[in-house]
Structures are given as structure tokens and as C-alpha cells.
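Incident log, entry 3
Record: RabBD domain-containing protein (114 residues)
Problem: checksum mismatch between cached and fresh output.
Input:
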Amino acid sequence: MMALEMINLNFLSELERQKILEVLKRDEELRLIEEKRVRKLKTELLDVKRKGAKRSSGNYSERSCGRCQEPLSRLAVFPSQCKMCKHNVCRNCQAVLPDGSWLCSVRCVSKNRM
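Fresh output:
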């Protein structure tokens, strides 16, 4: 907001100045929201890396989650498989999309948003 104080807006009407300031304020709010979203995604990605998520090239147990490495339920006849990375994932590592389908959290969801 310091930059706003340096800009001379005297040539604008009061209504025009007000509208410009509203737009700049909304822009700042959206930037903060986006920064928070990016920080959250980075944190989730670091969490997956720390837990040692499966890589598409490795041989891993089909009975463990491809994201968090937790054992999958033995009751599930058909494990839940991500459509993008093809790993079996637990419910905690699934992110539901607006259309009701889901992808594994962090990696596939973030790729799908880009």
C-alpha cells in the first residue's frame, strides 16, 4: 500500500479514485489467497517426499498407498487407483474433484490444475 501513497491521483474524480483503490485492494486480497494456496501445496508436496511416495518407475507393494505408504485395507476387493499416476491410494490421499471423480492428492491434483 506504500506505492499507492506515492501515486498522484488528483487528476481523477473521487469516484474514479475510489474504484481504483477497490480494485487494488481486491488484487492484494487475491494475491494473499494465492500465496497461501501455493504454500499449502508446497507443504503437502514436502510431506509426500518426506514419507517416500512411490515413483512410477519403482516396484512397490500393491497393498500400500502410493502417496503416504500406509497399508491399504485388506477388506477392499478393488483398491482405489488414481487415473493419472495409476498408483493405489488410501482415502486420506484422495482429492475429490468438482465432478465427483478423484485424483491422488498433491502430485496429480496440482498437475491437473495447471
